[in-house]
Design a protein that fits this description.
Length: 176
């Protein structure tokens, strides 16, 4: 079995020499004769001093360890905050992604609607339908015999004028 590793030895300059009178004795030292105790203290003074100095130096290590532990706890807290922010960011990104898809769908619908309503072929078809409607109204007006001749001429001229105006617009449109 290996012996545990002790902290490094302190320098002897750091600890002043003490006499045997300054040392605190263990509890049951009265059971030993005074000469034996003095002999042990004088023989092992250096070993005792080294042993005590090793533990005094550990105070610095303990303080440094506690400071490092505080820093580690602070970093852990910051990391947890980072995780929370990352989760919020992911949620916002997924919301943004869904909004972007919704925007693209709406844009495609609008584009389809605009093309079906206002494109050149769509406007041409609409103009042709209007021309057919005006033509059918003029035919219906001609077959209606219950109208006064002045009223008939007025309405017929109005319909034919609209028809020819739209027909001319359609022809110019097709040429361009």
């Amino acid at each position: 079995m290996n012996t545990p590793e002790l902290p490094p030895k302190a320098t002897h300059d750091a600890v002043p020499n003490t006499t045997g009178d300054d040392l605190r004795l263990p509890e049951n030292c009265s059971l030993l004769p005074a000469k034996v105790i003095e002999q042990m203290v004088s023989d092992h003074r250096e070993y005792l001093r080294d042993y005590v100095m090793r533990f005094e130096d550990c105070k610095d290590v303990l303080e440094e360890t506690s400071e490092l532990k505080k820093e580690l706890l602070l970093l852990l807290e910051q990391f947890e905050n980072t995780e929370e922010r990352r989760e919020r960011f992911r949620a916002k990104l997924s919301d943004l992604d869904s909004l972007e898809k919704k925007y693209e769908t709406s844009w495609a619908k609008l584009n389809t609607l605009m093309n079906s309503t206002y494109s050149n072929p769509a406007l041409t078809r609409r103009m042709q339908k209007e021309l057919q409607k005006l033509e059918s109204q003029a035919t219906a007006l001609e077959s209606d015999r219950g109208l006064d001749i002045d009223e008939f001429i007025k309405k017929h001229l109005e319909l034919r004028q609209q028809y020819h105006t739209k027909k001319e617009i359609l022809l110019v449109w097709k040429q361009s």
